[in-house]
UniProtKB/TrEMBL annotation:
Domain Pyridoxamine kinase/Phosphomethylpyrimidine kinase span(s) in chain numbering: 14-258
Protein encoded by which gene: thiD
Any GO MF annotation of the entry: ATP binding
Xref: PANTHER family: HYDROXYMETHYLPYRIMIDINE_PHOSPHOMETHYLPYRIMIDINE KINASE THI20-RELATED (PTHR20858:SF17), PHOSPHOMETHYLPYRIMIDINE KINASE (PTHR20858)
Designated name of the protein: Hydroxymethylpyrimidine/phosphomethylpyrimidine kinase
Family: Belongs to the ThiD family.
InterPro entries associated with the record: HMP/HMP-P_kinase_dom (IPR004399), PM/HMP-P_kinase-1 (IPR013749), Ribokinase-like (IPR029056)
Amino acid sequence: MTEIAKALTVAGTDPSGGAGIQADLKTFQEIGVYGMSVITSVVSQNSLGVKSFVDLELDFVESQFDAVFEDIPPNAVKSGMLSNPNVMALTARKLKEANVANYVLDPVMIASSGHALISETAREKIAKELLPLATVVTPNLPEAEALTNREIKTIDDMKEAGRVLVEDYGVNAALIKGGHYEGEADDYLYDGQTFEKFSAERFDTKHTHGSGCTYAAVITAGLANGKPLYKAVKDGKAYITAAISNPLNIGKGQGPTNHWGHRWSEVQPTTKV
Ligand SMILES: Nc1ncnc2c1ncn2[C@@H]1O[C@H](COP(=O)(O)OP(=O)(O)O)[C@@H](O)[C@H]1O
Ligand SMILES: Cc1ncc(COP(=O)(O)O)c(N)n1
């Protein structure tokens, strides 16, 4: 009997269920991968924005890592909101100690509502300690600008940011997401050799809370299942496009994406008669 694939998310929380740990675990579950979590920060937020957050003590974050790794080693790990440089250094150390082969680094810096989620110095830690460990980094445009210290105005700028992240910062591959760009919602993957474009029509919706988390979680689940990176990203793009194009229409602000979007015709759990 083959064993179920296991994936771990290291991130902050969202009590309203749209982003962070909650989005990641929902995604793992929907894909059929066993989901686990290390919580770095408890965030009070919803579709209207971030109210406040409490970063957990470093020792306690470490204890969660140990609880997972000594018992159920994951096939892939994803990190989202790593709230401060110490948590980043700890995550890098734990990934190395556990010899994690598949690591998706979502360099969460700013919530889609515009609130900063990590400090300035933390960006440098991402660049120095985490990028060299990652199978793929998945910045949105503002994150790609912050990480590479470059303005991104054109498609060529997006590609150049991917090239800089791989060639200068030592990440294995970079997926620059075009959600914040104008026109189509196109993302560019650079793996040191070729650029691959993942395209989708841009839907006129405000319900994209957690879209970056969810996309990275699908990629993590794909890697956990043994898929090559290109296929994991392709599946991720299909999942997130369906999750955005079939909105649940809940929340007073920028509502969550729909984890049943990819099988929306088959399951309509929120439709009231
Ligand atoms: N309105 C939209 N229509 C279709 N796809 C979108 C839309 N907004 C974002 N996306 C896609 O959702 C994914 C997450 O994108 P992005 O918004 O750039 O990341 P983040 O949530 O980290 O800010 C990307 O694949 C992006 O192309
Ligand atoms: C704990 C946490 N992590 C990440 C995000 C970013 O969400 P998005 O995927 O919309 O960029 C968030 N709002 N909260």
